[in-house]
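step 4 of 6: structure.
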Amino acid sequence: MKIIACVKRVPLTDALVKVSADGASIDPTGLVYSLSFYDDLAVEEALKTKEKLGGEVTVLTLGASDASKELRECLAKGADHATILLDPAWAARDARSTAKALATRILELGAELVFCGRVATDRDQSAVGTMLSSYLGWSCVTDVTKLELTATGGTAERETEAGIETLAFSLPAVITCDKGLNEPRLAGLKGIMAAKKKTIDETKPVDIESAVKVLKVELPAARKAGRIVGQGAAAVPALMDALRNEAKVL
Amino acid sequence: MTSILVFVEHRDGTPRRASLEALGAAAATGLAPIALVTGPGAAQAAAPLSAAGAKKLVVITGGDHYSPDGTAADIAAAVGAHAAVAFVAAASSAGKDLLGRVAGLLDCAPLADCTTFTCSGGVFTVQRPILAGKALVTVQSQSKVCCATLRSNTFAVATGGGAAEVTTVATKGGKVKVTGVAAKGDAKLDVKEAAVVVSGGRGLREAAGFKIVEDLAAAFGNAAVGASRAVVDSHWRPHSEQVGQTGKTVAPQLYVAVGISGAIQHLAGMRTSKVIVAINKDAAAPIFKVADYGIVGDAFEVLPALTEAVKQAKAAN
Ligand SMILES: Cc1cc2nc3c(=O)[nH]c(=O)nc-3n(C[C@H](O)[C@H](O)[C@H](O)COP(=O)(O)OP(=O)(O)OC[C@H]3O[C@@H](n4cnc5c(N)ncnc54)[C@H](O)[C@@H]3O)c2cc1C
């Protein structure tokens, strides 16, 4: 089975962000990138599926050639191939144009199963995985925390406000991975050595115009300064008074 | 009149609050909201949805199981049938799941978790948080149908509507089927929906330490328990309670952080709460920088006293 893990580089979660001079983008200077937290889960699930059902794993990203660092780490963990859909302006692409470019490539690769992260922790849209499934006409299960796959379909669990949902689906499918699904492996020395010899494909994605116009990027207003109402249990009456009379939330 | 399609979640005909807020946001644009409901009891939602601004109601029938791709296809078809210029839903797990599917079917760019939603001269403009709320981006939709999910606890519910005209449509059905839902025990409030969230961190020492957090939540009555990632990773609490960048984003009226240091990834999930209270024994903990009110002290001394005080206040009300 041909399996694809779609991944994205995002700024580290502890990054301090600044707005660019144009007021409509994030200033990239000083930002350190890594794979989005949930994309590591997608890569792990792709590798586990290959180990169970056979096949090969391709990691696919739409980005700049800098992404080869993260893709090589995926190869070191056991992925067979890696492809970058090269777009120097990747950071400005919208979810629609990204999903369409990925879908085109996924069809070219003849894949049957695609894993994505639940969300890329930069735009926080949770949209590319589900959009892919619509463009491909495939099954899709999102935010998966438990997965059982066979060669033709599977069952999955996802967490909702109402409780744990169980779903049944057929292949081909797009699965988006949530925390709890697996524990991503680390690359071993042998894998790291082998990955050095592998090539990372770079191809141009299909060109699709953006359908979102960014007007402004700003930092959220700082919270107004608060205060320490006191020390220990003795401070409880002062806190209650503030909650009741000042904040009016009781 | 130009219409806007709103996907409404409900339980046996009672719409969920977050969906009513989405309907309110749709009504506030001045366009005519069409509510789409599916599943058992959907038709009973007509009265509450009419009252909350729906001009029309589309009831999807058939299909013995909920199918996310089937519902997305039903929504896309209704958008077409009514020539709707926008599709909105609450940014809930169902709403987030549907957004990209519908946007893909309509070949439009999705906008998730919007905190503002306006329409002027036929152009939709929204604001949404990115990088876990570290920045806010204002964007204009240039798609033929603006597809968006709206953050809960952010938009007002509309009042004073008339009787919505009801149409029934058979579902198109889908490939994926929900075969079961294991409901949470004792109908616990979800952290995303509770008016008060009491969250605990590593300062509670062990899983059993959360007893004092649960007691305080119970004293408030309308509260949910939340957790930091450190305690979720230690398996003291389930992932469904994790607040933060890789957990849930919450914006309750009152957020109480107990024994939580206030790491940037935790703040990302709760910094837009209306009022923040922090209880931490370290006066230099970063959580105090975002807290409106802080108590420096041992949680095991402060919380029982606070729980007593809240109980008394509630009894006096
Ligand atoms: C990619 C990534 C994603 C992440 N996502 C999240 C996320 O979604 N949510 C999240 O929460 N974190 C997240 N984190 C982790 C985050 O960086 C912190 O490690 C975590 O929030 C710390 O949890 P904590 O505050 O419970 O523990 P600590 O940082 O260990 O803080 C414990 C606090 O308890 C106080 N304390 C100790 N004893 C007592 C007592 N008796 N009474 C009162 N106070 C006491 C201490 O003073 C301290 O401030 C993420 C990290 C990464 C790298």
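step 5 of 6: annotate
 - Chain B touches chain A through 91 residues (CB under 8 Å).
 - Residues A 13, 37; B 201-203, 228-231, 242-247, 259-261, 263, 265-266, 269, 280-282, 285, 298-300 surround flavin-adenine dinucleotide (CB under 6 Å).
step 6 of 6: archive
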